[in-house]
Known about the structure:
Blueprint: E1 23-28, H1 31-40, E2 46-55, H2 61-74, E3 80-85, E4 88-94, E5 101-103, H3 110-117, E6 130-136, E7 154-163, H4 169-187, H5 205-220, H6 222-230, H7 241-244, H8 264-277, H9 281-299, E8 306-316, E9 333-343, H10 344-348, H11 350-366, H12 369-382, E10 398-402
Parallel strand pairs: 5-6
Antiparallel strand pairs: 1-4, 2-7, 3-4, 6-7, 8-9, 8-10
Helix pairs in contact: 2-4, 5-12, 9-11
Amino acid sequence: MTGEERKPNPASVEEEEGGEEELRWLWKANEDTKLCQYANDFGTRIGMTVVTLTTSRPLEFPLFKRAFRIAQSKCLNLRVTLRSRGNDLWFCELLKPSLDVEELDENEDLFEVIERLSKQNYNCKNQPHWRIRLTPRKQGSSNVLENSKKDFPFQYDYIFQMNHILFDGMNLALVVDMAHKILDRLIEGESNFDGETGYGYTENTGLEERERDVEMKLLEGEGYRELIAREMPPGGRIPWINKGYPKPGVHRSSTKHITRQIGQELLQKLSVKCKEAGVTFNSAFTAIINISLMQLMRSAGVDEDSYDIYSYQLVNLRRYLDNQEKTPGGAYHYPMTYCSRVNAADKENFWEYAKKCNEELQSKLKAGRPLEQKVLSDRRKTSRRLLPSSSTTLLPSWSISASPTSAT
């Protein structure tokens, strides 16, 4: 999110008594984690989500804070940090973890808070890799539950910031849901949470074993390896979208945040249409974006017969783990590359095109394509021996190139 090295903010961290940091060493970090942690120190590989709470009466901040303290005691990755041990980086559990949960004034601007948080790292003593900032909404603000605002008139926003090495979106959603349920019980006067079950956090050994199997297949089959590489974004050339929309000449954009607001009613209608057509919501959204990008290109005067559009599809790699009784904590997200050819006819036959996207994406997931691409990408970071020379750069989340058919 920033290009500057992030600094700790000790003043905001509530430390437990006990002096020296007490750790339980868990396991050694792999090369991917080391690279991610290096990036994290410079403001990337962090995630932030804003959650809105609606309540029937004013929220007591001590109860809110206690809910996350209890959740922290139940979920290991809310107590995990990364520390150097000799010449290696290790995952370790903080035995006396701090709690970086703070209440802000209602006049605080959320975007400014996000900007401040993006410049703070997690290097304070006893500090795990997450923090929360809570702020009440001003009276008279629009209510997220307009139909229920009489019963739930009070609103609060909180930012949950975390290190993406330890969390992904699914894990974060489960932790937040658990904390909210604890908060409801605290508000009702409950005090015993001994039987509450949290979420574990384990080394990704099962996934690494699968990746080693994939690597052996890629090493043994050159044709197979090149097939996977061709599905990834081609390197060494300028994306076609720059023909219609050249790169700005300024060094840094003045826009810091882009908000995406889609009406709930529209989302519900789209969900119904997806079920009727037998496609996933993600496939339909991919089709919408691809056709929209084609329209943008044509409106800019770049008119071709068809376009190849590369996109990153966020995949949950837990699907490749065996015998998982409960969703494991941690980061299992990976951006699988997907290339789809789109032309003018696809706009007129949208749902047929959405079905095509759906079939192709489902086929790639079943074939284990995300793991295959991950192995190629990981090896690209440390060695060129697995990759053809034509695929050596990463492109943005959506990239356009002209398809071979457009040359006729």
